Amino acid sequence: MSPRSRENERPWVAIGSDVIRQIRQHARSSIKTEVCGVLVGSENGDGMEVEACISGLNAEQAGAHVTFTQDTWEHIYKVKDQQYPDQRIVGWYHSHPGFGIFLSDHDTFIHKNFFSSPKQVAWVCDPHSDEEGCFGWVSGRIERLTQIRIIDRQGGEGAEVGGRPEPVVEELEDEPVAGQAWGPARRDSEMVSLTQLTVTILSHLSVLVLGLVIGWYIFPRIVMVPVPVDPLTGQPLVLRQMEPDSQGSAVPQGGQGTSSNPPSKPPDPGKGGHAQR
Ligand SMILES: [Zn+2]
């Protein structure tokens, strides 16, 4: 039989884009182990239309190879009776995470035993490579099908129905090009380190100023306060003013008074010129 005549025997498959999306999302939900489910739809002349899918719960825990367990079938028929009472199960799907599109011996066993009707198909997808393929019955044997039609259920809408503009990305000019890929990034890191340096210096300075202010109020100001000292006697003027008060006799104050009075006390070499407290 020539390939051309075979082409006429191969059934076509029409599948909704929303169904493909659901299958892809189910496959991506388990990136290491296979997942499976069934396809729901109706036969249509030479082909078959997939209108929905039902994920096979409890099947993905089976390990590397998918298996339709009793629980899986119970869940599938329950969902089908509730949501798709008028459709038929027109095939099944499963994922091959990372190993491509084909039907293994295990897969053909499943197809022959559970999906043996002439129009039933097996959809395979690889969530790692985003490859997809569909297998079906051609002259009594299973082959990869050539005609897959994707149905967009929102097709037919006017193009300007939404009237929404595309979002504007403002920073496209700064998109690094090959060769200067590190330029903007390095400038950013320099700015960051400069900012950090400034913050560090400012915080150290503020701590220093705070410490000075606290020290100013707490510790006695021995050195900082200048005490007037008589240029002749070397006595602090504060002390000279207090002495007459303690002795009860009035003595003229100021430079005149000290010059008329002979220095009664020689300057104490140990205390002269220093504040006494
Ligand atoms: Zn498989």
Blueprint of the fold:
Elements: H1 3-9, E1 13-16, H2 17-28, E2 36-44, E3 47-55, H3 70-83, E4 88-95, H4 105-114, E5 121-126, E6 131-138, E7 141-144, E8 148-151, H5 183-218, H6 237-247, H7 254-260
Bound molecules: zinc ion.
Zinc ion binds at residues 94, 96, 104, 107.
Main-sheet strand order equals 7-6-5-4-2-3-1-8
CATH top level assignment of the domain at 7-138: Alpha Beta
Question: Ions, cofactors, ligands: which are bound?
Answer: zinc ion
Work out the number of β strands: 8
Q: How much of the residues is beta strand, in percent?
A: 15-25%
Rough shape? rod-shaped
Distance between the termini: 123 Å
CATH superfamily of the domain at 7-138: Cytidine Deaminase, domain 2
For the CA atoms, what is the radius of gyration? Answer: 48 Å
Structural class of the secondary elements?
Answer: alpha/beta
